[in-house]
Design goal:
With 404 residues, the protein is α/β, with parallel strands linked by helices. The chain contains ten helices and 14 strands. Strand 5, helix 2 and strand 6 (104-106) form a beta-alpha-beta unit.
Amino acid sequence: MSVQAYDPLAGERTPEGPQFDVFLAGTVFLDIIFTGLPAMPAAGTEIWAEGMGSCPGGIANLAIATSRLGLRTSLAAAFGDDDYGDFCWRTLEQQESVDLSRSQRFEHWHSPVTVSMAVHRDRSMVTHGHPAPMPASEMIGKPPPSRAVIVTLSPEEPLGDPDAACNWAELAHRDGALIFADVGWDPSGAWPRSLLDQLGVCHAFMPNATEAMAYTGTETPRDALYAIADKVPLAVVTDGANGAMAIDSTTGEEAFVPAPRVTALDPTGAGDVFGAGFVLGTLCHWPLDDRLAFAEVCAALAVQQFGGSLAAPGWGDIADWWHEVREAAGHSGAYGSSLARRYAFLDRLVPTVPVGAVRRAVATIARYADVGMTSPASGKRPDEPHSPPEGEDPDTPRVPAQKE
């Protein structure tokens, strides 16, 4: 089943163009999310959660987010030969149309697992996993042709190091891919500025405000943005509910866009969803303001749902949101009018979105994401009510227990 009912890059495609729009590599986790907890359990106690869900996590957050937006996505990752690995592979490949031709299954390797517990808009996590059996560059070999790759900067596999072997992202860059870089939290607190030396081979860098200020040694997100813009053609700094800012030296644009007002329930994967939207806008050659605004609304839609990767919006969700904003603009005050003006560019995109465009799947072992698709098991479309078998919790994930 394909979830790509809408292709935003249709006008850019040529017979000799690259096979994929985005190529990614990283670790896939099975995420099990408990929601609606009154508090964290105290030692020796048991509490009940109001809901739960299961979905692929880690790099799968980004892969699903890009595929949901119609980008042809390929992912290289290690998968265990257990039932957790079966579920993550099936969900990514069959439900979410993510190409896994550069991924591998490994015998006797336990799939990484994260249990996330959400309490009052915050979350705590417990993770179990083992190092991947094979380095990413060895598993990938020569990357498939793609328009863009998204990487996390790290000292272990540095970009642009003349003394180190050329990694997979640089090989893709040599074949014409743009490198969009991000960076993770530094638990050591060192925040080495030398990490930013890797930006010399990157097209874009998209850290959050905390990371940006820490790595640049600056005191405000805007100062951090200017410091990053000295090192990379396209600099982006995200600042949560405050919005995002960017400088694109290739077009001479500088922009700041506030985030839409939403009630955030679960921030899991919001940065990945923002990155997916911004990469799409860049590949579509949109103005910088529109790229930031589009990425912001994608992230805003995601954080209103529990479930990490499966909370990532599709074009159907975006179309629904825009219709609501436009209809409310005349009677929702200055903020509603401002929102309608800011997102007016969606008017040229949403009318071409088909009725069957992708909408979000339920954050459990969901089988279908497309509106209009019928589940052989239930005979129902996924947007219709579904009654579980008698005595079964509708949120119970169908993942057999695994033991090491």
